[in-house]
């Protein structure tokens, strides 16, 4: 059956990984360390010497130290050899401890866990919410993201067969902050459900962890950038760092048609509705442009497709006419902007249209420092908005694609609707998610290594032709590199890169020359579902792509122990491992199956007929309880096989996002219908009132209520 087959396969993978590492032993640097020799001459007898030093016995008072044995003498002075890994009873064994005296006034967040890693292994600031003891003694750090867990599961007597999610009041907070809401909860084995009792053997506390998000806009941000992107140090913060090619990156030439925004994206981002975007029916038949608006002559979206026989081989434009558009606006009323300049640039960089436009209403503010428009420029102009609309309708047809940056604003100024849009603010999304957008100036610095809009804030203002050509070059670069290129870049430094650049070793692990800490770099591994090389994990020293949690478990152990030949994973393993387990996430319905294709992108496992039969037979044990039991055993096996002095972190990333996702989809549908010309509020299929808005805010609190566990092996 499906389950049994997967289970045995996972056991074989783990067993093989464990067997591979049975004979491994810790590598010892013997360059400046000699090994005791029972036949060595006694004190006072002559011994062989070299120019680099000589050997002598330690003093009797050193016998109580962990470093018994020979010492190296350099220039007449003794230098201690590398310290042994301390035993758990040693006074210098590392630890991460919580105290009620800690400076903790709110929930820690995902970035707090990232900063803890950077403090232990690199140049991060010291945490105020925990005490880190004997930092130099930490040998490794393993951090595992396990979406699907929530705090309500860790209550004794919970009926998992009836469990549907955390109670709504779990995330409610009112009045003054209560320490009970953000202090860690002590884990007591006898007070936990049996399937989750292994957590008490690994961790002293359960930590409430706040997921990244935006309460104002009702948005939950991805926890991945929060963990895997580190803020730039102050000495590196001057200027934007140009994007660098990830390890093993391969360009994937991409047609521009693959970069087109779909109807849902256009409506969600406030683009004007074109009738071709509507489904055939009454609404489309009765479509009427708002007063003063026009739409391009496109009857159906299929009219834009070009037969393959007409497409030049290797062409990224796919036979389409591509124009970059940028407009400048001036203020003509309260919160009202009117078109004063339009620039249209063809794919080859030639300027198709560049016109000043006189608004119908008097200009209140020319906003010259941004628009570059002055009264002297506009006074002699006779061109109107209607003139520009007529010219654009002659230029743009079914095979025309408009591209630009935040193009919805330009189209609203033009009072023009067109269904084929490529927007650089969507192609290069903000790391914290919508509604935030990255500026065109930043994108040019980051991805083109180019300075634009130098006149911004001065009387020179922006140049709309320069901005249009910048958008054009960004899209050309995207077509050359591939759709995934630049999509995961954020305003910071990749965590794996930071550890490789600033990872710090100390005397206990790197010898006398590392006294006080030396930036020697730390090796790392990313173990995840799907193709890790096309994610933020591509910057790790080692990437291990998986198709199941069993493979993730084996990958973690392999990364920690190392390969016997050291060809892929260095002998002795890497210093830092980040991994993600996803089977619980898929079972809980936290994994959005609509955004991933399982075969291509490491999507959630499909439920086979065999698994369905097994679930029907196992009616006495819920699938959730079975999955949690497997997860607990899996994490415990990893913990048991970690070397001493290893920090072990498990976190969920988010809380339960299901109700939030349902309400967000409902809100998006409401906006889509409400913004459709000719629609009537009382005839919409969904309604969005203050009641739904408050429900979304509460669901967001639940979605942002993650948990985490911190321990030391």
Automatic annotation (TrEMBL):
One cellular-component annotation, GO: nucleus
Matches recorded under Pfam families: RNase_T
Exonuclease domain boundaries: 321-484
Annotated localization: Nucleus
Primary localization class, coarse: nucleus
Keyword Hydrolase: yes
Compositionally biased residues, Basic residues: 1-10
Keywords of the record: Exonuclease, Hydrolase, Nuclease, Nucleus
Skewed-composition ranges (Polar residues): 30-39
Listed name of the protein: Exonuclease domain-containing protein
Gene3D superfamilies in the cross-refs: Ribonuclease H-like superfamily/Ribonuclease H (3.30.420.10)
Region (Disordered): 1-88, 596-620
Domain of life assignment: Eukaryota
Keyword flag Nucleus: yes
Listed GO MF terms: exonuclease activity; nucleic acid binding
Family indicated by similarity: Belongs to the REXO1/REXO3 family.
